[in-house]
Amino acid sequence: MKLDSRSLLVGASFAVALFLGYSFRPTPAAPAAYTYRQFSTIASVVPGGLGRSRVIISDSGDQEVGKDLLNFYSMVGINFKNIANNDRIIVETINQYVSEGWELHTVTTGVNSAAEGKGGTGIFITRYLFRKPV
């Protein structure tokens, strides 16, 4: 098989392009370092309005700061005004964090039913994890 100058030129051009492509790639940026902050909402579901619900926030000094939430139930059943009020408090807390430069990173939910299958009590917990570049 005879190599002509055209084949050599194409091959050499390809090799130079590969070399330049790998030699002058930008250096990958270092992963950003973050600081994290979290608040949790705990809703205790007890018929008759007897449950306790709160927003729990640990500030930078690890002191617990809480905001009361209203119960899901009243004596006559589900209280939708209370649920709407709780949603407002949660959104206000999220907006406060965002205005301070925090990014909502992860939301995790969980349910624990103390009397499974008996229509009794339970706890709903939601954790809101925020992060901010250091």
Features:
alpha+beta, 2 helices, elongated, single chain, 29% helix, 134 residues
Question: What is the gist of this entry?
Answer:
The chain has 2 helices and 7 strands. It has helices spanning 5-23, 80-99, and strands at 34-45, 53-58, 64-69, 73-74, 77-78, 103-113, 122-133.
Oligomeric state of the chains in view: single chain
Q: How much is the average pLDDT?
A: 80
Largest sheet: 5 strands, antiparallel
Residue runs with pLDDT of under 50 for 5 or more positions: none
- Please give the domain count: 1
Structural class: alpha+beta
**Which band does the percent of strand residues land in?**
35-45%
N to C succession of SSEs? HEEEEEHEE
Number of strands: 7
Radius of gyration: 28 Å
Strand order of the largest sheet: 3-2-1-7-6
Number of helices: 2
Helix share, percent:
25-40%
Verbal overview:
The chain is α+β, with helices and mostly antiparallel strands. The chain has one domain. It has 2 helices and 7 strands, in the order H-E-E-E-E-E-H-E-E. The strands form 2 sheets. The chain has a 5-stranded antiparallel β-sheet, covered by helices on one side. A hairpin with a 2-residue loop joins strand 4 and strand 5. It is elongated. The N and C termini lie far apart (62 Å).
Question: Could you outline the blueprint of secondary structure elements for this entry?
Answer:
Elements: H1 5-23, E1 34-45, E2 53-58, E3 64-69, E4 73-74, E5 77-78, H2 80-99, E6 103-113, E7 122-133
Antiparallel strand pairs: 1-2, 1-7, 2-3, 4-5, 6-7
